[in-house]
């Protein structure tokens, strides 16, 4: 009867422990209900994109004139560039032409010229910077006359979404507009409107191409001149004043340091040394870097035309190939040393002349003439540069993660999460206390005295055949509450096949037994574990050796084991100690479930791209500094893309 009651109590206690385990596990993970969980590793199909290496040694070509040419013509020029060593190009994406008759869809006739350029770049495996600008008649901002140049940010973002979806596998970086500090590209010049345009474009691009580099600015090297041009530093400062968060919506800033009156490195002079000193391309760049010290600056256009012509006053204007090479080489050689970690790639304007021999400097910026013949001085320099600085492709670039816009609910959610975690911790503590109480009750069932120890038992479950490590709470409840010294199962057989490790107690701290404990006739007397041979500390396959018949009744004269430390002191053999009762073996009844979660994050990053506004017809000659800052918006009469 007594044995039956003990069996019933054991069964109830065991089921209580089993029921408590899911509660403990649930409370342990419940705190994640209101806390964002990192995304799991996901697998996506993707096509490798030729990336622009973000390095000051990267020299590409701003090949805006490619738009509108045939596939054969484009392929020929890209092959010439690659033979020289060029691996990256900046292409012109004229929104104003693509949507000239209203919003259009990729695949339609109005997208066919873009398809040709992009397919050629893809076929050649070149990194692509897409410079998107020019406003279609139906894309102007509210309140702007139809046909004006100030774009509607929402309509521009809609176009960018279609463009990225169509060409995201080819384009590495996106440049938003071209020289918006000149009236030829933005009419009227409006830094606040441009800031809104950049923000809208960024929000359209990043969800579709998270690793792309968004390049803003493309400001030209000019001085403020009425409503015709605006100093690039003043322009960017006005952007920040209009939207202090604008720095979160682009990855790199671009600048066009056109100047044929002064080599780039020679502009590094005291800005107070003359009325014009602070306006050199070098000094303007220093001021721009100060506004965004953590961002790189891409030079997405720079070039020098080669031409000779006589003006109306009979003055001959000439720039030779030697002069072209001198100015280009000066920039390339001094770029990295001058601007260090802020120096990004350089794109030279342009591939071929559009009209070699023309009196218009804009027609003569090519590295090759109109017939494809190389301008030997500059191409020989570039060939050696590329030999010394191979333009090898790399993996996706990392433009960096902008500071996220604060979420107004974040503080509330975090506070609730902390409170919930505190409640969960209290629940876990209560469950653990309940489980320990049950464990102590189990230890006293069967007549064997509970083991008193000054330290908590630290046991490992050897019987759970899994590589997943159970939680500490589960191990402690399952084993500590089911192990008693020298226990046997209900059939009298030692549990040798389940070797459990236990922290043995010092014999001096073991309470002395003064009276023999007499078990009923049908029970078995616990036996002291025999010490293992001195040559090994590992448990045997079948557990400690038994020294007598397993059915021997209790012997009163052997009960005082406290005086025989040589038989019972197993402190040096913790792995030979007690065996758990099989009736409550945790490995059989309460295996914890797996709760693994794998986190990872990937990214991909890309390079940057840019184009320039065309129509910069001002003379970039060395006659006068004021003339070099022409109202063309291309800076110093620099080359630009047709808007």
UniProtKB/TrEMBL annotation:
UniProt keywords, alphabetically: Glycosidase, Hydrolase, Membrane, Transmembrane, Transmembrane helix
Domain Glycoside hydrolase family: 64-327
Residue stretches spanning the membrane: 12-30
Keyword Kinase: no
Highest rank taxon of the organism: Bacteria
MF-aspect GO terms: hydrolase activity, hydrolyzing O-glycosyl compounds
One Pfam family this sequence matches: Cellulase
GO biological process, one term: polysaccharide catabolic process
Ranges of compositional bias, category Basic and acidic residues: 486-509, 554-611
Key word Transmembrane helix present: yes
Listed InterPro entries: GH, Glyco_hydro_5, Glycosyl_Hydrolase_39
Region (Disordered): 464-643
Comp. bias regions, Low complexity: 528-553, 612-633
SUPFAM superfamilies per record: (Trans)glycosidases
UniProt-listed Gene3D superfamilies: Glycosidases (3.20.20.80)
Composition-biased stretches (Gly residues): 634-643
Protein family membership: Belongs to the glycosyl hydrolase 5 (cellulase A) family.
Protein name: Cellulase family glycosylhydrolase
Organism the protein comes from: Mycolicibacterium hodleri
Lineage: Bacteria, Bacillati, Actinomycetota, Actinomycetes, Mycobacteriales
């Amino acid at each position: 009867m007594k044995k039956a009651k003990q069996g019933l109590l054991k069964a109830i206690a065991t089921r209580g422990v089993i029921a408590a385990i899911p509660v403990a596990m649930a409370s342990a993970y419940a705190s994640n209900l209101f806390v964002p969980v990192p995304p799991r590793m996901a697998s996506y199909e993707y096509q490798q994109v030729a990336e622009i290496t973000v390095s000051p040694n990267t020299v590409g070509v701003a090949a805006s004139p490619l738009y509108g040419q045939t596939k054969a013509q484009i392929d020929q020029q890209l092959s010439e560039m690659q033979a020289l060593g060029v691996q990256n190009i900046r292409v012109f994406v004229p929104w104003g032409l693509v949507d000239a008759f209203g919003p259009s869809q990729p695949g339609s006739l109005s997208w066919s010229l873009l398809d040709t350029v992009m397919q050629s770049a893809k076929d050649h495996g070149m990194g692509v910077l897409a410079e998107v600008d020019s406003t279609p008649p139906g894309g102007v901002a509210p309140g702007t006359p139809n046909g004006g140049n100030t774009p509607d940010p929402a309509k521009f973002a809609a176009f960018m979404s279609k463009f990225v979806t169509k060409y995201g596998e080819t384009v590495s970086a996106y440049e938003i507009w071209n020289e918006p500090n000149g009236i030829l590209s933005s009419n009227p010049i409006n830094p606040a409107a441009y800031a809104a345009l950049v923000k809208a474009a960024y929000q359209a691009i990043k969800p579709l191409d998270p690793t792309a580099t968004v390049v803003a600015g493309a400001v030209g090297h000019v001085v403020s001149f009425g409503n015709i041009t605006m100093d690039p530093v003043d322009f960017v400062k006005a952007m920040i004043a209009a939207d202090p968060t604008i720095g979160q919506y682009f990855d790199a800033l671009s600048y066009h340091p056109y100047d044929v009156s002064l080599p780039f490195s020679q502009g590094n002079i005291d800005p107070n040394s003359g009325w014009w000193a602070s306006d050199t391309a070098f000094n303007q760049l220093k001021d721009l870097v100060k506004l965004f010290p953590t961002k790189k600056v891409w030079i997405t256009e720079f070039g020098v035309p080669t031409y000779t012509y006589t003006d109306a006053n009979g003055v001959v204007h000439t720039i030779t190939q030697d002069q072209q090479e001198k100015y280009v080489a000066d920039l390339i050689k001094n770029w990295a040393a001058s601007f260090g970690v802020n120096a990004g790639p350089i794109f030279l304007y342009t591939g071929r002349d559009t009209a070699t021999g023309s009196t218009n400097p804009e027609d003569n910026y090519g590295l090759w003439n109109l017939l494809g013949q190389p301008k030997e001085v500059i191409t020989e320099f570039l060939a050696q540069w590329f030999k010394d600085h191979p333009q090898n492709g790399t993996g996706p670039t990392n433009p960096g993660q902008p500071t996220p816009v604060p979420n107004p609910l974040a503080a509330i959610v975090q506070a609730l999460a902390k409170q919930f975690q505190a409640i969960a911790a209290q629940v876990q503590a209560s469950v653990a206390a309940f489980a320990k109480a049950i464990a102590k009750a189990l230890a006293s069932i069967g007549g064997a005295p509970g083991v008193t120890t000054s330290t908590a038992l630290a046991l490992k479950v050897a019987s759970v055949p899994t590589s997943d490590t159970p939680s500490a709470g589960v191990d402690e409840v399952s084993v500590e509450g089911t192990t008693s010294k020298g226990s046997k199962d209900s059939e009298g057989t030692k549990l040798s096949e389940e070797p459990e490790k236990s922290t043995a107690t010092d014999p001096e701290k073991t309470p002395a037994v003064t009276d023999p404990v007499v078990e009923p006739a049908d029970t078995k007397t616990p036996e002291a574990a025999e010490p293992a041979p001195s040559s090994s500390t590992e448990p045997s396959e079948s557990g400690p050796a038994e020294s007598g018949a397993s059915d021997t009744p209790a012997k009163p004269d052997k009960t005082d084991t406290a005086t025989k430390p040589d038989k019972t002191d197993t402190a040096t053999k913790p792995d030979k100690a007690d065996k758990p009762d099989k009736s409550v073996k945790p490995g059989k009844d309460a295996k914890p479930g797996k709760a693994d979660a794998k986190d990872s994050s990937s990214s991909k990053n890309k390079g940057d791209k840019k184009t320039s506004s065309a129509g910069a017809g001002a003379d970039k000659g060395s006659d006068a500094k004021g003339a070099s800052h022409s109202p063309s918006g291309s800076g110093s009469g620099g080359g630009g893309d047709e808007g």
